[in-house]
Amino acid sequence: QDNSFEQFIINYCNEKLQQIFIELTLKEEQEEYIREGIEWTHIEYFNNAIICDLIENNQTGILAMLDEECLRPGTVTDDTFLEKLNQVCATHQHFESRMSKCSRFLNDTSLPHSCFRIQHYAGKVMYQVEGFVDKNNDLLYRDLSQAMWKANHSLIKALFPEGNPAKINLKRPPTAGSQFKASVATLMKNLQTKNPNYIRCIKPNDKKAAHIFNEALVCHQIRYLGLLENVRVRRAGYAFRQPYEPCLERYKMLCKQTWPHWRGPARAGVEVLFNELRIPEEEFSFGRSKIFIRNPRTLFKLEDMRKQRLEDLATLIGKIYRGWKCRTHFLLMKKCQVVIASWYRRYS
Q: Can you tell me which residues the record assigns to a coiled coil (predicted)?
């Protein structure tokens, strides 16, 4: 119920993770259909980039305002920080405060004067400003770091590398918020280079009990995890897509015209293959560089046919090998018989 600086940066990280989920699933998937020339009706979804910008913008973001308050000279309190937020973020549609100039919150008794509220992707969260400035400073005095670095214990010395006299930096230590922001940016950069798979977990109840499903709680999680939009995109789109070259290479043994070698463009080979297999036209679409298959059952059918064909080919290879081996043995025995007979006739 009481959210402070710690919950604020945790929710900021959740917003960034939700943003990359949107980028890699909803946005990128729909853009790929358009890029590949597939007929597609755009599905609307909420992009939480505006919330991330409210928190992390270098000039007008909440973290930037907090750092500015921590670094500026003069009297600095949590109230002055809130006043600055009210000046900078007063007109932002996802920021709410009783002290702001926006009249729609003046009669909101659920929002105390010492709090502000952010409308996150998952819903509205109210934060107590008390302690924001002190927790953001989170300073470790240099003399303490130097004393710990001089310890004889190797582990303690390793935990305080900033105490090394050779690495003393006279600049003000970075704030906790800026360190967390940089850490989140590094995490996002790493995730962007990967091909992530998502497992969405739904908490059925708050009691940690079996066989109890709180419908309101489950529906709330489904909404803020973005599952509804994701399911709509998946149902309207295609379950599987693959470039023409690897697709032809994987399934070419299913068609006599493409096996063992196809002479021509890969797309033409895939078209011949799918026509030969008589797959319904509504089950696939040809993009500029990829084949798109709508339902998983079509892909499963192709895999089953490929598996059966590989078994048939293995049987054929075994049959040919055994025939070659028997013929070779027979011809050798026949040659030996002729040699033995000719030598026998010579001495008889």
A: none
